[in-house]
Amino acid sequence: MLVNQPWRRALETICLPIAALLVALVIFGLFCALAGANPFGVYQSIYKAAFGSWSAWQNTLIRAAPLMLTALCTALPARLGLVIIGNEGALVIGGLASVLIGLNLGTALPAPVVQIGMALGGILGGGLWIMAVGALRHYRGVNETISSLLMNYIAIAILNHLVEGPLRDPDFVTKPSSAELAETLWLGNLPATRIHLGLLYGLIACVIAYILIQRTTFGFAARTAGGNIRAARIAGLPVGKLTLAICFLGGSAAGLAGMVEVAAVQKRVNESLVSNYGYAGILVAFVSRHNPLATILVAVLLGGILASGGILHDRIIYPMPPFWFFRALCFSACSLAIPFTAGFRFFSSIGWSTSGQ
Amino acid sequence: MTYRKTSLRLSRRQVVRGLLATTAFGITAKLGTGCTAAESDSAASGSATGSGAENVVVGFIYVGPKDDFGYNQAHAEGAAAMGAIEGIQIIEEANVPETTAVAETMRNMIEIDGAKVLFPTSFGYFDPYILEMAEEFPDVQFFHAGGMYQDGMPDNVGSYFGYIDEAEYVAGVVAGHMSQSGKLGFVAAKPIPQVLRNINSYTLGAKSVNPDIITKVIFTGDWAMPVKEAEATNSMADQGIDVVTCHVDSPKVVMETAEKRGIYCTGYHANQASLAPKGYLTGAEWDWSSVYTQLGEQFLAGKTLMSGDIDHILRGGLADNFCKVSDYGPAVTEQAKTDADAAKAGLMSNELVIYKGPIETNAGRVVLAADKELKQQDLELEKMDYLIEGVDGSVGG
Amino acid sequence: MAAEALGWWGVPLGILAGTLRGSAPFLFVSLGECLTEKSGKINLGLEGTLLMGAMSAYGVSYLTQDIVGPGLSPWLGVVAAGFSGMVLGAIHGWLAQQPRVNDVAVGIAMIIFGSGLAFFLGKPFIQPQAPQLVTLNVGGWSSVPQIESALKLSPLFLIGLAIAPLLQWFFRSTRWGLYVRAVGDSPEAAKAMGISIFQVRMLSIMAGSFLAGIGGACLSLYYPGVWTERISSGQGLMAVALVIFAHWNPVQCLWASLLFGGAQAIGPAFQSVGIDTYYYLFNAAPYILTLLIMIITCSPKRTLIGAPGALGQED
Hints:
The complex is a heterotrimer. Chain A is mainly alpha-helical. Chain A contains 13 helices and no strands. Chain A has one domain (4-349): Orthogonal Bundle (ABC transporter involved in vitamin B12 uptake, BtuC), CATH 1.10.3470. Chain A is 69% helix and 0% strand. In chain A, helix 1 (4-35) runs antiparallel to helix 13. The model of chain A is unreliable at 313-319 and 342-357 (pLDDT under 50). In chain B, helix 5 packs parallel to helix 6. Chain B has two domains: 15-162 and 288-320, Response regulator (Rossmann fold, 3-Layer(aba) Sandwich); 164-285 and 324-392, Rossmann fold (3-Layer(aba) Sandwich). By secondary structure, chain C is mostly helical. Chain C has a domain at 24-129 and 151-234. Helices cover 68% and strands 1% of the residues of chain C. A two-stranded antiparallel ribbon of chain C has the order 1-2. In chain C, helix 2 runs parallel beside helix 4 (103-122), helix 3 packs antiparallel against helix 9 and helix 10 (235-245) runs parallel beside helix 13 (285-297). The model of chain C has no long low-confidence stretch (mean pLDDT 87). Chains in contact: A-B, A-C, B-C. At the A-C interface, helix 5, helix 6, helix 11 and helix 13 of A face helix 4, helix 10, helix 12 and helix 13 of C.
């Protein structure tokens, strides 16, 4: 049984989002048929736009990369029974921190050093941001879901304030932004692709997170404590330290996503950093049932859905319902599928706990 | 010196330089696309457009919904006008965020749909996304609303925008006449140059009829914040402001709130007279359909940015139908109408210059000496980062 | 028409007026959440419910204006908002009570589901103008136009004011209120009393969602009185926070909602008198305020007064 279980879990994790997507596809197909389009033609176009060619795959993977990282921000603390939805805020703070480091160090140091500094900035920024949530939870009993949510809004306000005030580059006219990072600091693409290195960061982070949770004593302690905080206290586990550490790790992943977004995509920091990667990450985490490896898969699937927006142009051929409706359906189906994951053992570890229990 | 030229006429670019650059970009891009886009069969055909037999595919990308009663809708209506031309086919995608998503959308439009011309309309699409894609696809023309084209940018990038501040100036003249308290209100989203220019021109228009007038600015911080916009309008009314206008994505809330408070308003983006039948004075409206129709015809005629047939910087104001002034509302007095019409005629004949010295910022810095003036075409105006004297507000977050 | 400027007096007046105008959505959603949580379940999905309510209220008010007239159609909208909320609530109530299902996860799902549905169905209603709810001019006595305008109250707000103490009385003094509290505090005891936990929770969640839907109607039919996809700035989510620091007490929910409504007006009110820097941070005031209040009022040592015992427990 023990040998068997990971496989069963993996299977369930894979089947669930696929089943949800199938439901969304069927519903969307019905709407297409109502609108007079051939649903199978539409399906084919969706597939073509998401996974039909190497170019489409690249499109999908580019969109999946930040989701892997932001999903960890929810997935890791979930192991300790914490429901954290501050992904967007951690991403923003991480991006801000890395740009501050990148702009201040500039070309004074060798580029790789500055890049590592920026990555560390992102990790520390996002990590400390979510660690604060964990600390409030542990020391003050403040509900972590609510506080992390509020801190999203606060992070975005700080971002807007800084790019419109102290950090603003007056020569960049299209929107209030910081100055541009030196070109040597930009994160390049994987060889022979247009996929930026962020994908690699995401994959590595997910694998590390998996090993950390499944194969180390730290992970074991976290999972144990997540099962029952009170029992863990009695057993002498350092619940406080575990809380802070795992919140830090989760936040650092989202912070790294911010760094990647800034260094590989935006090249400067502005409000475009807030583009819902964090919120999509929550969905990815829940659908993948907080399993870091499954996160990779689900992120790719969701990336594919986002990428298949290209199919919209097929309206030339098919009169079909607006494409974003398909996206909304997929997201809804995935999210409504979340509860069904709960019938299984380890999902039950995520408990809502009000203070003082 | 005929400074103002019809905005769509052939540019001051040197053709030779352009040809050289096009070739150079062509080579690099062939190398570039060779290893990335394996399946882009539809896009691979040469750069000659307008063969007649085949439709020219034009892609429009919007940052928000197409029916927002504001910025995106104005563009979408223009796109529809362009699409009405025989031989032009419009493809559109709305709700595209200013991230890699827009780069991928552009790529899809080019590679899958064979788009030859793209209009990514949101300000934030320009740098870096359009610039990067333009280098990769030198055959495709990229037109951006409001971006700053500068020398050294890819040859297939063009920027177009309307001097809607001319219409704001006229609206300001009307507002200046109609305000009893001498205080105007401006609900703005973010302090970026286009917004600041509108605020300043509006104020200058008002000051031209009432030198003591004050324009109070409230920044809501984002392009769509309905509650904040309503709250800002209300607090302006509380402060005795009796004419408000706005520069946000959808002016609906501001207009309706002003009407409820019984104060005047002037519109933006589109005609909002129906939202405030009593208090709507006039407004500054975009009119993209004429611009887009002209461009569409040029595309069909095989004209391109790369060959130098289309100017890299297309600008125009009231005279060029880039924008227009709403019909006057019932409350507007005869005197106000006369002065506003005079201002409009002056702007259209190029006799009236909005930014004419002396102009000081509200922090006391002289931006324009008494004998200087900045014509509408001056790119200096597109970098505006100040509020002029008479505006109550500040640009620093 | 021209009003005398109020100068600095405009700030407290602006915040007061903002409070009266903007707190109704908070009030309804937080009362709904309060009822839901008292039964021992959390509904984070009220943000989606709020949007759905705002959309259906606006849509119904617009569509029925020719049939029932512009006076009555907004009220039909309000009712429609409540019922659309109730439908979403029923889905939540059913899903969240499945074995070992986490109600927070369902809530996040419902946010996405509710807002997606509202945006999809709401497309045709972004442009048209729907008839708005009438306002009651309580301030007719005042000769100061600003005060007169500030005291144009929404009847929904007054209804909300009345519901808060009613709900309090409901919890304290009625048999049904006792059932809800029993189910929320100790399901075991409730079961022993012969109460159906499923039914009580289902009804509580549905009734709570009904209220939250009406909260949406306040946004689209009173203030700011439009339907757009950006109509809510997280009021539904903040209401959850609000309930916690109101200690699950309906009357305190009222005070908390007033505080939040007022906080929304801080940024614009300050800018209107010339404090025009840091407006992003002023605009974030409600969030910062909530966080601070939570930090101050929460404690790891003891259960909050009024916290339903079963809240967050697995069944």
